[in-house]
# Entry
Amino acid sequence: MPGVLLDMAISLDGFVGNSDSTDPGLYDWYFDPPAQSKAVIDELVDTTGAIVLGRGAFGTGEDAEGWDDSPYHVKHFVLTHRPPAKSMNGPIEFVFVPDGVQRAIELAREAAGEKYVTVGGGADVARQLLAAGLVDELQLHIVPKLLGAGVPLFAGLEPGSAAGLSLTKTRVVDSPVVTHLRYRVGASAG
# Structure
């Protein structure tokens, strides 16, 4: 049975976004994919049964003209202490979870059935899930850009930290504009 997949685009120097909230172009490949990347995207869409994201990532999608064009027509679980006052209308059902990452993953696993719970946004949410040992697989889309600064994905998860991560590479898919790396996540033997 698939588990929890953390799926994020990242710059070559380890950032998932700019600190000034401008778009650094880390997902340009997703919207105009080369053939190698299209296969990765199609697999991700087909195997995702539920999505977990943070309030910031939800807001980014909301600001980018909404969620109507998303190919992920599955329940989205949004970690937040600030649920919106009005309900969302559209093809995607959003469930706002104020009770932390553990609860969001529990709810998403129920909704996902035999498919993956895909974590799709927010470095903070990603770090919380990694530190709590709730991620089974990690898929990084390495974009050949050096941002120099911004929002680091792995801040606070140095070797020997509470996260105690061990990564086993399971796949590499290279394309002209992005390299897709997939890992199985386990506890380190230390």
Remarks:
- The chain has a mean pLDDT of 86.
- The chain is about 25% helix and 30% strand.
- The two ends are 27 Å apart (CA to CA).
- The longest helix spans residues 35-47.
